[in-house]
Write a structure and sequence with these properties.
By secondary structure, the chain is mostly helical. It is built from 5 helices and 2 strands. It has a two-stranded antiparallel ribbon with strand order 1-2.
Length: 138
């Protein structure tokens, strides 16, 4: 009830303790600061590829959020935007799975056992859910 009253009073939505606007402005500033780092010659190609992929995911999410808000403002159905986001998450998960597969093949990378166990558990559950969904597709 209090949150609804704050929203109606024009109080900005918050992420953690920072208002969204402030959080986004901080992110913009940090990205601008990365410009110098990206111009240096001392970049690991793998890290750079991971950074670019993360940046692309953020760009896509920002575009989708903008579309979602715009559609809500004119009372237009936003399910197509949500479907697009789901497709983007699937694409990102596919690429992450490929990268993890390559990481696991390497002998120079120590992967934390706890993280692997958690990943295995969630991937097993997801695999079962995927099988059911794919079977429904025909």
């Amino acid at each position: 009830m209090e949150a609804q009253a704050e929203a109606q009073a024009g109080t900005p939505t918050k992420i953690g303790d920072l208002p969204v606007r402030s959080h986004l402005e901080k992110g913009i500033s940090e990205l601008q600061g990365l410009h110098e780092v990206l111009l240096s010659d001392d970049l690991d190609p793998r890290v750079l590829a991971d950074f670019r992929d993360a940046l692309n995911r953020v760009r896509t999410a920002a575009w989708a959020a903008q579309q979602y808000v715009a559609r809500k403002e004119i009372d237009q159905d936003s399910t197509s935007v949500l479907s697009f986001l789901a497709g983007e998450r699937i694409r990102a998960a596919y690429h992450l799975c490929q990268a993890i597969s390559e990481d696991l093949k390497r002998t120079d990378i120590a992967v934390p056992a706890g993280s692997l166990i958690q990943l295995c558990e969630v991937m097993s559950a997801l695999t079962e859910q995927l099988k059911g969904t794919v079977n429904k597709l025909g």
